[in-house]
Fold:
Amino acid sequence: MHCFIITGGTSNQRTEKIQTLVKEAAVSPFDVTTIIPEPTSIGIERVRSVASRLSIRPVASPSHAIIIKEAQTMTPEAQNAFLKTLEEPPGDTLIILETSQPDALLPTILSRCQLVRLGNATKYTEEKILQCIDTLKSLGELPIGKRVQIIDELAKTRDDALAFVDLSITALEQHLKTTHTHAKLLRSLLTARTQIMDNITPKLALDAVFLS
Structure:
């Protein structure tokens, strides 16, 4: 199985990335199943239809491709049902979740997929990314008092906190091996970003990530 979460960039950029992945996997249009919100959410029956589709052999390709557009609109019941597909997909099934809000997905879904974030990588130099990785390691290893000092420095302003969170997300995606711990930290950072954008105190948002 190859499972991707495509986020960031514009809707058109995400669509182009999906088309590239499907083309690289040599999946015929006859074997591509696309799920979209109807009208504003994706319910459990739509997700169950994916499992039914996968039980049938591909028509003209080595494998199926399943694309879920605006995956953040899956209901909690639909996300839990979708986990079963992620756990036991047939063959080399290609699964692509497209979303502008990956933090709305269950941690167990995030941990089973490769996150592809568009539009961020070119903003940061390699030096800045490596410095960020060192900071993330320190925030995971130092005593709480030291971590509080670092967070106070990072969260002086809302813009400072957002810049650190965005850099951290890029650093995780580019340099750290995908593990359960990595996925958990990444989800926490995505949640913190949403909270900061919603005007929650930046320090509180970062405290929840690195002091819990």
Remarks:
- The radius of gyration is 19 Å.
- The chain has two domains: 2-119, 122-210.
- The domain at 2-119 is CATH 3.40.50.300 (Rossmann fold).
- The chain has a mean pLDDT of 87.
